[in-house]
Amino acid sequence: MEHISKEQYVQTQMSLVTFASLVKDMPLTGFINQANLAESIGPIVDPTLYREAGAQLNDVKALAESLLPFQNEIKRQLRKIGAS
User: Fold this and answer.
1) From CA 30, how far away is CA 64, in angstroms rounded?
2) Using one digit for the tens of pLDDT, what is the confidence trace for 34-58?
3) Dihedral over Cα of 70, 72, 74, 77: its sign
4) Side-chain half-sphere CA neighbours of 8 within 13 A
C-alpha cells in the first residue's frame, strides 16, 4: 500500500477535483466522431497531411476514448449528490 503525506493527499484531492471539472463538459463523443471522420476521409482529401498527422490524431483520439468512462463517472457522481 502506497502511503502519502497529508500535503500530498490534499494536493491530489484538489488536482482530482480540478481535473474532473475540466473533463466534465468536454464534448468527447463529438471529438471522437470528428476524429473518426478525419481518419476516414483524411487519406483521400489530403494524403500528405494525413500521413504527417495521422498518428498524432490517433493518439489524441485514444486519449479522448480513455477519458469517456471517467467523464461518465463524474456525471454519475454529480447526479448522485444532486449537482450537475
Assistant:
1) 10
2) 999 999 999 999 999 889 988 899 9
3) negative
4) 4
